[in-house]
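Suppose you are handed only these lines of text.
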Amino acid sequence: MKDKISKIKEEAMEEIKDLNNMEDLEELRIKFLGKKGELTKVLRGMGKLSNKERPVIGQMANEVRQDIEKEINNTKESLKKEIQKKKLEKERIDISIPGKNIVLGHRHPLVKTIEELENIFMNMGFSVVYGPEVETVENNFDELNSPENHPSRDLTDTFYITEDILLRTHTSPVQIRVMKENKPPLRIVSAGRTFRFDDVDDTHSPMFHQLEGLVVDENVTMANLKETIDTFIKELFGEDMHTRFRPHYFPFTEPSAEVDVSCFNCKGKGCEECNGTGWSMELLGCGMVNPKVLQNCGIDPDKYSGFAFGLGIDRIAMVKYGIDNIRLLFENDMRFLEQF
Ligand code: DAH
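From them, the structure of the protein bound to 3,4-dihydroxyphenylalanine can be written out as follows.
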């Protein structure tokens, strides 16, 4: 019996060495020390032993049980430590790895330009208003005194949605909305997208941006218009910039003018860029609001007069930021946009 017990101890100790997880360890405990385990089986036969042998064997069996238990516990401890170590290694945080860069965005050059324009006009006492990009033909053309045969009404010039609804071809319909909904005195600017069937080139895009201005009050004259535009241009581009008003035709203003500004390159001296004229052409259109338009909106033209203007924002942004192709503004290429 002694031999058997010794052998059990030897076997158990041998098997424990090869184990490397908790489940196997528990299985081994049951196999040797459990109720139906090897050691228990041997001890069951103790009844047959003599009185003298029994305590000796009993003690030996107890010692072996304790030894095996101890070994199991030791192995358990070192297994636990190993598992912990592996876990720590796996979850280790390397504080020397550089952090993720948070890229801060910034405003698009066009949005910056719009905000700059709006600020200038707000400082001159104008309010900033908005109008929809999808407009009625009525607001976009009819109420603005644009006749049926006007070329801008042509299918090939304009994005119609239905016969009566279109993508606005200019920001001028905002004038109509403002005049119909408010009573003079009025002093507003409105910036936004506009749409025309333009062939795409360096300075043309079917989608572009305009800023519309409108002033209606008693005794508003062409002198007010000229002073306002001149002040605006000097605020935007600098004191050394001048304006030149050339007669023009717009259905919704009478008289009408186009405004040229000193050449951005030579400031008026004459250079290659301005063909020696000293002027940058057609920066904006303007005029005294046509009395018919006032009437269309329920404003008495005998009591009130007004001026209006519309300017291309994309061109101004291009001049401001030295951009030579309008498409760059709309392609959303980060390599380009990050420069501003
Ligand atoms: N709407 C005109 C255009 O798109 C620009 C314009 C001209 C606006 C004269 C005006 C104005 O308010 O008075 O070409």
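What can we learn from it? Strands lie at 127-128, 134-136, 165-167, 186-195, 207-217, 243-250, 253-262, 279-289, 305-312. Residues 2-90 form one domain.
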